């Protein structure tokens, strides 16, 4: 178990640093194990430095930088051990438009291996999707599902049905 | 393996049965606040064996059964069917498609099925064990997860690494 | 102190229920004190029911419904005891477009009494502002402030300076 | 009383002095992720007397002093000036404008000033006591606050009511 953990850790660490540099277009990030001695008990420590900034504690990162750092780690884990499907629930909410575009590009890179289901309020993320589901609550308290074409997005968001499923 | 179908019957705000047919690639789910999007994420966590009502934002497991609206009475049970395709033989069964089912009545007792034959929760957990898609896995990500990954107050990070090993 | 607390509580309670109904365009909400006996020790309990839905525990509310309920309480407190200025940091992130419009309308109602400073990534919220500040980091790691006209919003978000302050 | 000016000198990512002149009504602050928007909110909490470095996302109070970039050296002190107009005589002083100042050196010792004359933290806290704008008040709201208000794990709600009484 110990050998497996350290092997996985080394792989994820390499991917994390690569993916972080793509999502942040530079900078550097690394993973290390807190020096508890026994790798099976140690904590995983993240260090991250956005481009041009000094290395500081990750608690000083901004809301958007924190979200992008966490997403870098998640993508690194998926790369190390692809999970058949992934569900993201509004993880793009703290990101500005430029970072949403980088996030979406990364999704496209992973879509060969992994199927993504993404809940989002952000139009840029919706536009990248291969298929869309609209959830409406036309009748208060009762949820229904409608198939949606990119053109109908405004209707669904205003709780007007498009076509019965 | 990929997610091919999800059916919700009487689960949370989904009073009448709904079906979501998934395709490969990226699927976006959209809709106004409170329409039932995160309830779909809860349905996936639940059918994969989630045991904590709190993780599903409730206080007791019956909170997942449609609780009625001002116009409709509460229902007596909730069912979720999840169908995954097994074309690549990820699962040790000879089927090309596998459907797992979870049912709960107001009494609180859950029943589990694999391809319509009754089984135990343990069988479902074992089925998904090595695929990285358990109910607590890094495959189902809500927005608060971003904070967990960065704060790491209870060793969530280590847990993700162990899942990937 | 006890008399003052119970008086304030009664006022805020009335405002909370009024403001909730405006932000949710219906439904009902209330505040009560947990029955600890001594009002100075009791917890403040929130009950909220969006339009057409049944009364449930507030933990079952969606992400957007939770944000709007918390904002209703904040506005009720400001109405009971106006604070000279208020700073909101991305409180509109969980809201869909329709709820952002309701939030913004409420801001307009309060702007006579209270000065608001709002950090947001949402264009609809920016459009309502009487004045705008852009923060740029053209030189990595060094923040500067630029005055912004509504027309320059795109430039500032892409870290291109508009006019030196 | 309203906020009329904020000056940051060497505070967090604001290496060179910046000034924000506020007007009545609604002011929006915008900019890409990590550019320094929430640092402005931290500056307001800090000048109002915030004593916890964690509330300012740091580990020690010196974290508020500009820490340098790859191109610039760290600075030795940080200063924030906040000017409020006292036209309605909210403050028990005969000035029409009041400027409070906080300064900190690498040694960690803070100095406070009211209209340029040295004072103690207690004087600043007393000045703002009844206005509802203390550093922990409901006038400065970050996104996590929404969760605090609804979860109420440590009696945050009660605290807000006490502020408003
Ligand atoms: N057992 C139940 N029966 C009926 N309705 C329920 C049940 N459980 C939850 N709900 C309702 O489902 C709604 C929440 O849905 P959900 O959290 O999926 O919204 P959402 O689409 O994710 O919204 P947001 O965009 O705000 O996150 C709540 O209004 C709640 O009342
Ligand atoms: N003492 C300091 N010296 C220099 N830079 C600092 C200091 N403290 C924090 N920072 C930097 O400030 C940045 C964070 O800024 P801030 O949190 O204000 O961003 P933001 O504009 O709110 O972004 P977001 O939209 O993602 O929330 C971090 O990148 C951090 O490195
Ligand atoms: Mg949701
Ligand atoms: Mg911020």
Verbal overview:
The complex is a heterotetramer, with 2 copies of chain A (165 residues) and 2 copies of chain B (165 residues). Chain A is of the alpha+beta class. Helices cover 39% and strands 20% of the residues of chain A. Chain A contains 5 helices and 6 strands; from the N terminus they run H-E-E-H-E-H-E-H-E-E-H. In chain A, strand 3 (85-89), helix 3 and strand 4 form a beta-alpha-beta unit. The longest helix of chain A has 22 residues, at 2-23. Chain A is elongated, with a radius of gyration of 19 Å. Chain B is of the alpha+beta class. In chain B, 22% of the residues lie in helices and 28% in strands. Chain B has a 6-stranded antiparallel sheet with strand order 2-1-4-5-6-7. In chain B, strand 1 (2-9) and strand 2 form a beta hairpin. Chains A and B meet through helix 1, helix 2, strand 3, strand 4 and helix 4 of A and strand 2, strand 3, helix 1, strand 8 and helix 3 of B. One magnesium ion (MG) binds next to loops of chain A. One magnesium ion is lined by residues 62-63 of chain A.
- Arrangement of strands in the largest sheet of chain A: 1-2
Shape of chain A: elongated
Q: In what range is the share of β-strand residues of chain B?
A: 25-35%
Listing every helix as H and every strand as E from the N terminus to the C terminus, the arrangement of chain A reads HEEHEHEHEEH
Number of helices of chain B: 4
Number of strands of chain B: 8
Instruction: Work out the helix count of chain A.
Output: 5
Spans of chain A of 5+ residues with little confidence (pLDDT < 50)? none
Q: What small-molecule ligands were found?
A: adenosine-5'-triphosphate, magnesium ion
Low-confidence stretches of chain B: none
Give the mean pLDDT of chain A: 89
Strand order, main sheet of chain B: write it out: 2-1-4-5-6-7
Shape of chain B: globular
Q: Structural class of the helix and strand makeup of chain B?
A: alpha+beta
Beta-strand fraction estimate of chain A: 15-25%
> How widely separated are the two ends of chain B?
19 Å
The total of beta strands of chain A comes to 6
